[in-house]
Write a structure and sequence with these properties.
heterodimer, A: about 300 residues, mainly alpha, MetI-like fold, B: about 325 residues, 2 domains, about 70% helix, globular, Sugar ABC transporter permease (chain B)
């Protein structure tokens, strides 16, 4: 139990954790290894760097000199992409979907995880299995019933301009929440099982209700996995493409990731504009990644089910 | 420090089983309000997941035996047995190409992306200077959405403005020509998948007891021998997880292909066929559901395998 909990995260491979026996002097082998890894890293970064490079270049320049050239730098692509692609609106749509879905997912999954970890009911394992497996089903296999269901559920027009859950942010928030809850419940319950039972016994003695034990005892202790999961969920739901594409019909409701497909028509002839648009769309996830890399990486290895 | 709980090696059962009888007492002592709270905490999330994931999954299976076109209510007379399945496999032209493409996809992820990811993880596990930077570079694509990856690679694969043709002087439409587009899409997917696999193995390797390797080294094993005979067997749970993830992700591959050409013209996948049969006015519900059921059946095999691995510690 402690062997797992105590080892450093993958994100922070602390050099001190290296056993002395494996530390080697700088040998030729090491140099070859470094050269090899530098080459691989550059190859891996290349597509992103290429997009970044061309996003700063003028269309007129690249169309006469070709893309494999140097020069013609400008910032205009970014302003053009922003305006033509209506990025302000689509970023807002992404926020409208992502933020409530992340919060709802964490609340729902921490409730289930808490019950599974804190109490010993006979249905615990089955319940957790039901949640965990849900996350692994192919979304396309559920599309038909979900599509029909959302179309038949009427909502007031002040909730959604379409009058149904289809083509509404609510539908998208719901389905994202349902899909991610399983994964988070699984990860959180594993973590919560490491919380000593004595803490709950003490809380019981002090007369704390189950609700308080969840909110004021368990959740604060679960800050590390909650932070990791929140980071992952923001990226995943922001990146989510399938449900947004099939459940939304009005182009102006698309989150930024699925609006890309609509934008392609406008950007098709101008690859510098396309590059700038791609860079803008990638920016939020890249910022999250670089700012919270530790959370992000440790989160992925917490559950090992998603990509 | 306590911020990893890799499920594979998650809490040992010994400590928990001793707590068992006490827990049972706790449950009995719950007040009425607490019982209500517990019920609420289980029921609300369950309704969301059952209602939006599991019931639709069952509904897909039921609908696959009907001829429903989506108009009006579902009548008993619409049940047509396995006819949709017969139609899908015999008279639906894109079906077998889609199966073939899904299998190719799986094979590439399994035989190309996974070994590369594993190999890089082994190299990065050597705790060298700058290891973190290499790791970040390799992992970066995982942060991007597959839709965006389609766009970024278009800058390389495009016929007229792409880098690849500009450098090689060829005139191939990498994303458009059905001789090449599956492979072009696979290059882009592999680019992302390698980083992910690498990370999973890196996490697994960090958990391997160092004394195992030292013992192997003392016994005179080469690094290669130590890896294949000692480390890899210890990584068995990670291997199974990677296997399951690879199968499931290959089955539900969608975004990249949809961005390229909506899954037509050489890029048919089961996932895109389902979507094409439902979205818009096509509404071939029974038919699409047969395809969906196909996906459900395959994925459930791997989900069962996955659950067996990750929940092993909980079984008694």
């Amino acid at each position: 139990m402690t062997a797992v909990a105590d080892r450093p995260t993958a994100a922070a491979p602390a050099p001190t954790s290296a056993p002395a026996g494996r530390r080697k002097k700088v040998t030729t082998g090491r140099r070859v290894l470094h050269v090899f890894l530098i080459v691989v890293a550059l190859v891996w970064l290349f597509p992103v760097l290429w997009a970044l490079y061309n996003s700063f270049r003028d269309y007129a320049y690249t169309s006469t000199h070709g893309y494999a050239s140097f020069g013609g730098f400008t910032l205009r692509n970014f302003t053009n992409a922003w305006n033509q692609g209506d990025f302000a609106r689509h970023f807002l749509n992404s926020a409208i979907v992502t933020i409530p879905a992340v919060v709802a997912t964490l609340v729902l999954s921490s409730m289930v995880a808490f019950v599974v970890a804190r109490f010993n009911f006979t249905f615990n394992l089955a319940l957790l299995g039901m949640f965990t497996a849900a996350n692994l089903l192919p979304p396309q296999a559920l599309l038909i019933p979900i599509y029909r269901l959302f179309r038949s559920i009427q909502v007031p027009f002040w909730v959604s301009s379409s009058g149904t859950l289809l083509d509404s942010f609510w539908g998208l928030i719901l389905i994202n929440t349902a899909f991610q809850t399983g994964f988070c419940a699984f990860v959180l319950s594993n973590y919560m099982k490491t919380i000593p039972m004595e803490l709950y016994e003490a809380a019981d003695v002090d007369g704390a209700s189950v609700l308080r034990q969840w909110w004021q005892l368990t959740l604060p202790l679960c800050r590390p996995p909650l932070a990791a999961l929140a980071t992952l969920l923001v990226t995943w739901i922001y990146n989510e493409f399938f449900w947004a594409t099939v459940l939304l019909q009005s182009g102006d409701k698309f989150p930024i990731t699925s609006s890309l497909n609509n934008l392609r028509g406008q950007f098709f002839t101008d690859y510098n504009l396309l590059s700038a648009g791609s860079v803008l769309v990638a920016l939020p996830t890249l910022i999250v990644f670089f700012a919270l890399q530790k959370q992000f990486v440790s989160g992925l290895t917490l559950g090992t089910t998603k990509g | 420090m306590v911020d990893t709980a890799v499920p594979l090696t998650a809490p040992a059962d010994s400590t928990r089983s001793t707590n068992r009888p006490e827990r049972k007492r706790k449950v009995r002592r719950l007040t009425g309000r607490d019982k209500l709270t517990v019920a609420f905490m289980v029921v609300v999330p369950s309704i969301v997941v059952l209602g939006l994931i599991w019931l639709p999954a069952i509904a897909s299976v039921v609908l696959s035996f009907t001829r429903w076109n989506g108009i009006g209510t579902l009548q008993g007379s619409d049940f047509i047995g396995g006819e949709n399945y017969v139609n899908v496999t015999t008279i639906y032209p894109p079906f077998w190409p889609a199966i073939q493409h899904n299998l190719i996809w799986l094979a590439v992820m399994f035989f190309v992306a996974t070994p590369i990811g594993m190999f890089l993880a082994v190299l990065l596990d050597k705790e060298m200077r700058g290891g973190r930077i290499y790791q970040t570079a390799l992992f970066l694509p995982v942060v991007l959405s597959l839709a965006l990856i389609g766009f970024i690679w278009q800058l390389i694969f495009s016929r007229d403005q792409g880098l690849l043709n500009a450098v090689t002087g060829s005139q191939i439409d990498w994303f458009g020509d059905q001789k090449y587009n599956l492979w072009a899409a696979l290059v882009a997917t592999t680019w992302r998948q390698v980083g992910y696999i690498m990370l999973l193995y890196l996490a697994g390797l960090k958990a391997v007891d160092a004394s195992l390797r030292e013992a192997a080294a003392i016994d005179g094993a080469t690094e290669g021998q130590a890896f294949f005979r000692v480390v890899l067997p210890v990584l068995r749970p990670i291997n199974i997880i990677v296997l399951v993830v690879t199968f499931i992700e290959s089955l539900r591959a969608f975004d990249l292909v949809w961005i390229i050409n909506k899954g037509r013209n050489g890029l048919e996948l089961i996932s895109t066929l389902v979507t094409q049969n439902v979205v818009g006015e096509a509404s071939r519900i029974g038919f699409g559901s047969a395809l969906a059921t196909f996906m459900l059946v395959i994925s459930s095999i791997f989900i069962a395998l996955y659950l067996r691995v990750v929940m092993k510690g909980d079984e008694r």
